[in-house]
Amino acid sequence: MFKTRFDIVHKGCWGSEISKEFPGLSFSAVDCHWTKGNVVHILKVSGDESQFNKVITYLKKRKEVISAEVLSKDDLLFMRVLTEGHKKRKQFSDMFFENGCFPVVPIRFEGGFEKWTLGTSKRKNLTTVYNELKKYHSISIKEITEGKITTALTQKQREAMMYANHFGYFDWPRKKTATEIAKLINVPKTVFLSHLRKAENKILKSFLEKE
Length: 211
Fold this sequence. Notes:
Elements: E1 2-9, H1 14-21, E2 26-35, E3 38-46, H2 52-61, E4 65-73, E5 76-83, H3 92-98, E6 102-103, E7 107-110, E8 113-120, H4 123-133, E9 138-141, E10 145-146, H5 155-166, H6 178-185, H7 189-210
Antiparallel strand pairs: 1-8, 1-9, 1-10, 2-3, 2-7, 3-5, 4-5, 6-8, 7-8
Helix pairs in contact: 5-7, 6-7
């Protein structure tokens, strides 16, 4: 698998601008997908909790944001943000998927950039995406690295691991339980746990085989 990170300035989008508006907070997102031509992110916010309500208000006032729903708010803020898709050209996230690229870690919003770490089976896929994106956006690409995939997770298993990590399931003390995460992402708990346990089992076996 080939992997790299794109740092993209997405003008007019909250993803590039929210980190400049709230420089003391950390922003990341998972679950970027399309809903009737629009895009959904599950946004995680950490840092000064007194700023959370300002973040909520900021997103709700953004003209490109259709809805900004609070999923939970305690020491972390989780939101489901529905953003209007671009009418005249493809979103760059759409370009990733069409060219065989996929996120391998949550998207980060830092310093005015959307930071996408992508994986793909062919190096040329990353080059194709970069050349297409730079026509419309200010973008930099980090060093392309190649690594062997020792544990073949399915798409659903990989998503379950990303959700679990994103919502603090592996933290101690645990930030969110499996029940809470399943509710946040709107899937049955048994389904979420099934994918998560299978992923954990594969990773553990792969690790032990190396010892």
